[in-house]
UniProtKB/TrEMBL annotation:
Belongs to the complex I subunit 4L family. PANTHER family: NADH-UBIQUINONE OXIDOREDUCTASE CHAIN 4L, NADH-UBIQUINONE OXIDOREDUCTASE SUBUNIT ND4L. Its EC number is 1.6.5.-. This is NADH dehydrogenase-like complex subunit K. HAMAP family: NDH1_NuoK. It holds the Pfam family Oxidored_q2.
Amino acid sequence: MVPMEYYLLLSAAVFCIGVFGVLTRRSALLFLMSVELMLNAAGINLVAFSWFHGNLSGQAFTLFVMALAAAEVAVGLGIILTLYRNFDDIDVTNATTMRW
């Protein structure tokens, strides 16, 4: 059996990679991919603790996290298309000019 600490270390590493991507990337696509990594890290934690405690509630919550990630992708792609149409670029720093 694999100890739970390995799952937690994997989740922490994936979450840190996601945070690094959110803080350093300017492309909207890479920004969304980094957010997806952070959501996946939360899902790994939920499944690991669910397995450790022997109930299925964490796995059910993981399904909700996956549904949230799918909705986030749909909204994010709409935002990316709007950025590309208005600025001919998907750089998120250009979005500050979209103010009133």
